[in-house]
From TrEMBL:
<keyword id="KW-0066">ATP synthesis</keyword>
<dbReference type="InterPro" id="IPR026015">
    <property type="entry name" value="ATP_synth_OSCP/delta_N_sf"/>
</dbReference>
<dbReference type="Pfam" id="PF00213">
    <property type="entry name" value="OSCP"/>
</dbReference>
<keyword id="KW-0813">Transport</keyword>
<comment type="function">
    <text>F(1)F(0) ATP synthase produces ATP from ADP in the presence of a proton or sodium gradient. F-type ATPases consist of two structural domains, F(1) containing the extramembraneous catalytic core and F(0) containing the membrane proton channel, linked together by a central stalk and a peripheral stalk. During catalysis, ATP synthesis in the catalytic domain of F(1) is coupled via a rotary mechanism of the central stalk subunits to proton translocation.</text>
</comment>
<keyword id="KW-0472">Membrane</keyword>
<comment type="function">
    <text>This protein is part of the stalk that links CF(0) to CF(1). It either transmits conformational changes from CF(0) to CF(1) or is implicated in proton conduction.</text>
</comment>
<keyword id="KW-0406">Ion transport</keyword>
<dbReference type="InterPro" id="IPR000711">
    <property type="entry name" value="ATPase_OSCP/dsu"/>
</dbReference>
<keyword id="KW-0375">Hydrogen ion transport</keyword>
<keyword id="KW-0139">CF(1)</keyword>
<keyword id="KW-1003">Cell membrane</keyword>
<comment type="similarity">
    <text>Belongs to the ATPase delta chain family.</text>
</comment>
<protein>
    <recommendedName>
        <fullName>ATP synthase subunit delta</fullName>
    </recommendedName>
</protein>
Amino acid sequence: MLNQAVSRRYAQALFELAQEKGLLDQVSRELELVLQMIEADGYLRAFINDAVISPAQKREVLGRVLEGKVSPLVLHFLYVVVQKRRETYLPGIYRAFQDLANEALGVVEVEVRSAVPLAEETARNLEAKLVARLGKRVKFRTQVAPELIGGLVVRVGDTLMDGSVRTRLRRMRERLISSQSKVIEG
């Protein structure tokens, strides 16, 4: 609970600054880039999350690694996070910021899982249908999940639409078992 409160507080501060400067989209993309860089580089992740390393050393490294890749706003925000020793909250801060930015921009995040990478045309058709249904812009997060066999699983907030072959086969199996048990009972 404390983690969420801290993350929301920092995200709210960054959100207000970014909105005031008209940089919501840019800051959102830059925060995502920073987190991707930290996740992809085990050394950088360990360095950032190491409590023994001083904030000054972390600032220096962040400055070298991120200079020219992110705006001064994001860089200085990260300096504050490091100075206050809140580095471990960065993933939560990012998620909370994304929620605030998406709401302000009228965007809904949609998680799409498919057995194979989505074809461009399929993605466009799905996006058009979701925009018409939700009345908001759609931002996809795609994931390839071969265990689905085929079809799609789409999650919009708490709503799950499962059109995967795996689920269809499971349901068919359940109906067959159910009908067999009725025959045996009867």
